[in-house]
Amino acid sequence: SDADTEPEHSIYSDELKPTTSHQRSFSWLEMGSLWVGLVVGVPAYYVAGSLVELGMAWWQGILTVVLANMILLIPLILTGYAGTLYGISFPVFARSSFGIRGAHVPALLRSLIACGWYGIETWIGGQGIFLLLPQTAKESALSKALPWLGTSPLEFGCFIVFWLAQLAIFWNGIDGIRKLEKYAAPVLIRSEEHTSELQSQEI
What we know:
This protein is an all-alpha fold. It has helices at about 1-10, 30-40, 40-55, 60-85, 90-95, 95-100, 105-130, 135-140, 155-170, 175-200. The radius of gyration is 21 Å and the shape is globular. The protein starts with a helix and ends with a helix. The mean pLDDT is about 80.
């Protein structure tokens, strides 16, 4: 009867279905490109730079970021193993530890963290667009901060532009991200090499 099947609909949906081996089509090169996109980026430099600003030496800041990534690598591999083996998502995997209803808590916390990190990266990307603008635009009235906004209308507009650009990529799902990282990873690696060369010249 409908009453008997109702609980099943509340815990099962098309979005929660395990992916098949055919759907898990990322190659090792595409996984490596995705990893580069996650690790090699401006936010990582921001973290190391903030540690130096707080009083650490430059090598201590870099070492702290590297150690933090190594520590996080262990739980990330453990939680991701079930997904690669069975094709299940994190909310489904969390049910084994927290129960069907309890799994909503870690899934919600993870989504809130993702939203916060998305906002941080979008703001940094918007700042990058702002820095690329002509000097005349940066010196205009639109670049003056508004107290109620917390930033200038021009910087906020750059934030919105970068937000929309990311949204356009994410709209295509994981395939959109895969295509982006395929071309972005070599650029990020080369920019990292260029940054290291500049730092060595300064030293």
